[in-house]
Design goal:
about 140 residues; mainly alpha; 10 helices; about 60% helix
Length: about 140
């Protein structure tokens, strides 16, 4: 039996243009907007699923990660942003992207240990600054135990 997560990772390594595709295109899933549910957040998530990943802003990544959408791809985008600025800021405050990354469901980190290691490396380099900014790393580190 082929592991779907492993297959996605293999495809990503082979496909150099994944950033030019939308989540819908990458995941081969097309969500239907619920007519009876109208909220700004739901509207934005549905819009972002159709936009190429290379057009995502830090806020777009933060929002989608917070909604548990497209993590296989968006965590990679987040890592690129966090390498430039660990306290990259969406719409709320410096470090809001990092905070959402650290709050991802532990199951994702268990299934994607190579990404966990990358985040671990980034936060270990600046753990004192992270603590000064009141960003908790506890749930992130508990996810792999």
């Amino acid at each position: 039996m082929i592991d779907k997560k492993a297959l996605i990772l293999v495809n990503m390594k082979l496909e150099n243009n994944w950033r030019q595709k939308s989540l819908e295109g990458l995941e081969k899933t097309y969500a239907v907007f619920p007519n009876d549910f109208n909220s700004r957040l739901v509207n934005r998530v549905f819009q972002l699923r159709k936009i190429p990943l290379e057009q995502f802003t830090i806020e777009d990544i933060r929002l989608m990660v917070g909604q548990d959408e497209g993590l296989e791809y968006l965590v990679r985008l987040a890592i690129d942003e966090l390498k430039i600025d660990l306290f990259a800021e969406g719409d709320f405050y410096p470090g809001d992207l990092l905070k959402n990354i650290l709050a991802i469901n532990p199951k994702f980190w268990i299934e994607n240990k190579e990404l966990w290691v990358e985040i671990d490396h980034l936060i270990n380099e600046k753990i004192d600054l992270i603590n000064e900014n009141d960003i908790s790393v506890e749930s992130f580190y508990n996810s792999i135990k």
